[in-house]
Amino acid sequence: LPQSDNNYLIIAKHSGQCLDVKGGSTENGANIQQFPCNGKSNQLFSFIPKQDGYFKIKALHSGHYLDVKGAKGEPGANVQQSTYSGGGNQLWQLVETDQTKTDQEKE
Q: Which residue positions in the chain have pLDDT lower than 50?
């Protein structure tokens, strides 16, 4: 599991691109996207342990946290950065999977 005092790139398996705060914005509500990895601080995140195996995920450059906008629960809800509110929409769980291939690799 991640160490809370380390910063990490979060890389999408299907694209090889990094999680990125769009445009390096430090504003609340800035969009989270995938973008070619460049190692800038808007692509670096720390994982801060909370209760029951969940983490707050903090953007290094802004000090804001990954947040499901509006605490929406439906598929396709946007992820943004925001100040920490303590809501469940800002807590994330890392789940080990036995999936070793992407859907494209299986075809």
A: none
